[in-house]
Design goal:
The structure is a single chain. The chain is an all-alpha fold. About 45% of the residues lie in helices and about 0% in strands.
């Protein structure tokens, strides 16, 4: 693994945006801009890709510790000029406040077996007789385990429906007049002799006599 791989994985796992990445560097007293962040996060074969050096990644990890554990009073710890997998593992262990047993359990979750003496050997000083170099395979699986345990999902923005969308909701389109109450419309009062559907009788305006109604004769 290279330094950019580590930076990409941590950004992805904890869902840091560019502003947060810049702030993490700033907490460790390093000023960077969004363009630099973007270049470091590019794929290795991208024409705009820029490799992040050991000192800058160490600064980011120091800032990551400040982000997760709070910044200690006093001067900021200077970043290492030369970074190793052992140092990266140790800094992540501090940032996430992990004990040896927890790290071993995390690795077990991704089907990677590591004993406690092997893990302890990674934290030894290089001149110690029990010191062991942390290989890429170990760090890669550890970052995978951290992602599985701590991954921060992106939160979807919940948008409030607009007035237009409410109007166009099923059953509430144009002409919708609200929910029926079940009350019947009042009936027209009955008036004796009134026949709304009866045809009117024609009256000749020049006639002086009132119109006669036809009468039916009954056969005897």
């Amino acid at each position: 693994m290279n330094n950019n791989d580590v930076l990409r994985r941590l950004r992805y796992t904890f869902n840091f945006n560019d502003k947060q990445m810049v702030a993490i560097f700033a907490s460790a007293e390093e000023s960077v801009n969004r363009e630099q962040i973007s270049q470091w996060l590019k794929k290795d074969n991208d024409s705009d890709f820029v490799a992040i050096n050991d000192s800058l990644l160490a600064t980011f990890l120091n800032g990551f510790i400040n982000e997760k554990r709070g910044k200690k009073p006093g001067p900021q710890i200077a970043p290492e000029k030369r970074l190793t997998n052992n140092i990266i593992l140790t800094k992540l262990k501090i940032a996430l406040n992990l004990q040896a047993e927890q790290i071993i359990a995390l690795l077990n979750d991704v089907d990677f077996r590591l004993s406690k003496p092997e893990l302890s050997a990674f934290s030894r000083k290089p001149d110690h007789k029990h010191y062991r170099e942390c290989k890429d395979q170990v760090l890669r699986n550890f970052l995978q385990a951290v992602d599985k345990q701590y991954h921060v999902a992106r939160t979807a923005k919940i948008t409030k429906p607009s007035d237009d969308s409410a109007k166009n909701a099923p059953g509430k389109g144009a002409g919708y007049q609200g929910k029926k109450t079940g009350k019947a419309k009042p009936k027209t009062p009955y008036v004796e002799g009134a026949r709304p559907n009866a045809s009117s009788i024609y009256v000749n305006p020049k006639s002086n006599s009132a119109p006669k109604r036809s009468q039916l004769k009954l056969n005897k």
